[in-house]
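Quick one:
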Amino acid sequence: MLRMANRAYASIWVRGFCAETLLDRWKEFLQTVPVSTERPGFSELVIRAVDTAETPILEQDLRSGEYDAQVLVDLASEHVHSDSSYETQAWWDLWMYDARGNRWELKPEPLAIYCYGEEFDDGLSQEQGHFLVDAGFEHVFTGHAGLLGFAGERERRLEHPDEANFVALMSQPENLRTYHEKTRENIRKLYNWMERVESALPVERYRLWSEGEENFEARMEEILAAR
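Output:
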């Protein structure tokens, strides 16, 4: 439907994170993931050593069942090193707009989750976090074409014909109200997840960011505040 290049991320740093605590923290983090009711569990485990360019030392396809955090920890237990990374995939339920049917659907959307040892890829965790989440497309949390939030204060730049059609559709007040409502629910789901993470782990800090927004958190806060 629309241009969907930009991604949204969460970076989380944990106090006392090291090779000795990695598995415990990894498990605690995975247990907070709000997995989809339709597609629960984790679908793979990929372990890399040294840096992201290296061939994985372990690739485990878990799509045959509903595998939980303990399964991933058990599989990773023989490969715990400070210069390694641990990747998995899951699904969570978000509100998505179906343009063809002009309707909203609560449906499973993919999550990519990374855990970085402190020495992996020249200390990538310092920049990206001990845990990095690719939460999906940015527009799921910020909307298209500046329509959401205090839209009247922002110039709209329509870079694709489908965006113009979408803006025209959202010119109907009821459609725009629903767009705000569903996007707010997606935002709250992301924030609620971060609250669970802070309750479950000794979080030093976390950062929500994206490829297209200069301040992703401020943009989401604006959408939550606007009425």
